[in-house]
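User: For my dataset I need records formatted as: sequence, then structure tokens, nothing else. Please produce one.
Assistant:
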Amino acid sequence: MRWDKKETTDYLIVFAFFFIINLVTSGGHLDMWDGVVTFMITESMALKNTAQLHPEIPTISNAKPNDIVNTMQEYEIGNFKAITGKYQEWVSMSKSVEPIYSSRSLLLPAVAVPVYLFALLMSLDPILAIGISVNSLVITLTALVIFCFSRDLYASRRIGFLLSLIYAGCSFILPYNNTLFPQPLQGLCIISSALFLYKSRHLHSSYICSFTRGKTYNNENRKGITYAGIAGLLLGLSIFASPVSLFFIPAFVVCSILYFRRNLNLLVFFLVFLVIMLCLVGIVNYVRFGSFTEFGYGSAYGTFAYNQGWTGLVGLFVSPGKGMIFYFPVVLLLPIALKFQYRQDKGLFLLTTSIVIVSWIYFGTLEANDESRFWSGAIAWGPRYLIPTLPFIVIALGTLFKHYGSYKTRVLSLMKGSLIAFLIAGFVVNLPGILVWSEYGTIYGWDIERLGNHALEIMTWNPGYSPILLHLKILAGDYISKIPVEDYRYSGWYYATYGLAPCHYDLYILCKSGIILFLLLGATAIILATFFLRNRKMDFYVYS
């Protein structure tokens, strides 16, 4: 295998471009509840060296009696008690004596710990530092993995960069650099696992027929084995981001068998590392909750989850408030893309279809009290639980660019027109999600539109109250600048106190540093993209 001499430069440019884009579009705050609890676990890890939710961390110890932080802590204590049967003694009505384990995933707060420590070292606000950078970095790395994967798969830097841009700018991942939700990290882990599986297979197949002896073959074979082990490690690691990754393991195992059926060493290394990670997951569960199979969701859904509904199967794709076709319209071309992907790489086709279908069926049938918030991802932008499927869908869409020449002229024009229209629509639809914090959209629907106690259901199913339209109304009426933040601080609308109001837009750099720095960073990103997309000869080795 021969690599382009400018490969490292390509990676740095792609990383810098997407990281700058994520920084300038970040709101610098945490999503309510999930994000705040995850931050508190990060604080416990950084300051108390424990993965438990520690009652002496500053966020909890400095909270006032009527602060929402105490409500969150009480919920986590109640959940821990329900799962383990243990009862925590209390110092007061709102603070427990000893730490307890939260149901939140451990990988995301662990990733955030270095940022927290860096913020302390530099005398920065840890919440701001984590809010701006953690998921921004995760989304940037995912875009970089998509670029690497697509560059190898389609033998084109341009296609790789375009697919990364589709993921980061034309899908509903766009507003998630404002959150500490774990789904972007889960998506990064599983697409990275798939990339290392793919590279391991091709490292071996490219050289097995070309070299019968010598250092080159041995080095590449060792590298292939290393990549297979890394693939198993990353797949297991994704379970620490979200236990839903357990359902993806069968597809990865079948894919590894397809890839490595002629080299059992690679298959064994992949499976051994995966099994090691699964054992570690079980041990961690036992330490936290006294059961190898308990992930901390038991008090909410019985065991791991409680599946009995069906409305989510429709809602995840076509509901105006949470349907993927509204938040990522280009997915309508996925069946055509999968047809080409099947011809090109059956293992990757298996992974893509399995991950999409399993996620759809699992979350689409997730129902508790017949509420859409359990299958949709609740107060979030678009179908949050389907975020891990986005990298696989985007890579599959690359086949449409690769096979343009196989269409007749009229069909080609129609395909190009549809693809461009869908991508523009995806950007336009998701832009209000980055300009307006999703929590403000919920407040607006409930408080201004008078949707009442069924606001989330109405916003999910009624086209006139879709978050997309509500966010456009907020922008048109400049609602954010009029939010009485202090009036909401200790009310039911505590969400308002964690955003950027009264700034007009949910962009921290624009809000706090002004238009000059915002434009300079934007111009830097444009220059990087222009430099990258200039006409360059493609001179790296293409697998047969």
